[in-house]
């Protein structure tokens, strides 16, 4: 059995305002990757939970969704992104997605 890392870095995603998700979405469109990062905060829990009125926002992507997204991100040229912080956020997101795709695991995210 393979060991699972206790957590993935989120240096470029915490803390961020909700508007950051839109900024990164625009950058992903720019590099030809069809994904809305709002899924990280708004897709909902992968398991039933009582209604959450405020925080945290929960998102998830299944392993089936992650594999084609990992391929798209692997083929994307992040050097064309002018804003370094945006490029770093996309690179960090790419790492999460690649890690989970390679480990054949779903990705669950929380926005606080």
TrEMBL record:
Residues 11-111 form the DUF7691 domain. InterPro entries: DUF7691. This is DUF7691 domain-containing protein. It comes from Nocardia speluncae.
């Amino acid at each position: 059995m393979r060991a699972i890392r206790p957590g993935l870095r989120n240096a470029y995603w915490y803390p961020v305002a909700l508007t950051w998700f839109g900024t990164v979405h625009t950058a992903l469109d720019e590099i030809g990757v069809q994904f809305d990062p709002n899924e990280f905060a708004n897709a909902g829990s992968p398991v039933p939970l009582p209604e959450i009125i405020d925080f945290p926002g929960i998102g998830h992507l299944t392993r089936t969704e992650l594999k084609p997204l990992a391929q798209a991100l692997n083929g994307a040229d992040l050097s064309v992104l002018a804003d370094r912080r945006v490029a770093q956020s996309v690179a960090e997101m790419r790492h999460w997605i690649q890690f989970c795709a390679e480990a054949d695991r779903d990705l669950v995210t929380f926005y606080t």
